[in-house]
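Note to self: keep these together.
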Amino acid sequence: MACYVDRPIDYSGRVAYRYKIWCHLVADTDEELLACAAELGIAEAWIQGTRGWDHHFDLPAPLRPRAVELGAAEVDFRFMGRRTRARRAALALGADLAVGAPDPAVIEVPLSPGAWEAVTSPPGVALGWATGHPLLGERPLVRVISPRPVSGVVTLRRDGSDDRADELRIGVVVGGSLPPRVTPPER
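Structure:
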């Protein structure tokens, strides 16, 4: 599963909410993010972010251990920022779905039921297939494997179809293909 949680932050004195300490819950795909949130009992309406690449949940500290039990990886703020920038860059590729990773990675992308075949992938990207997502059941997964930085679009098609309507385009950005980080001006 590709869900992530960062360290909890104490917002006491800054927020009027019931929980004063929380972290962020993100995932490689919105589908995984919503499935993990549902397992944690978090309403979909609580999702944060409006731009597509920044979707996340503010996760109250008492729920963080359960997210880790479900398979969420514990990461730092740097990872979260670089992952978010990678997903934003992948979305800019104009694909149907965007995934990003800050470092060379294996990104598992859940697919709708049925058989799929690869049509195109960027140079240096290998594709593998799997089933058995911990939150999404026995649905097929494509494993996007990149041992080095890469940016491009993976195109999949339902097995045996020649119809473009049966295609799924996945924008992928991994590692060094991230846009340069903007440094804030000095005060």
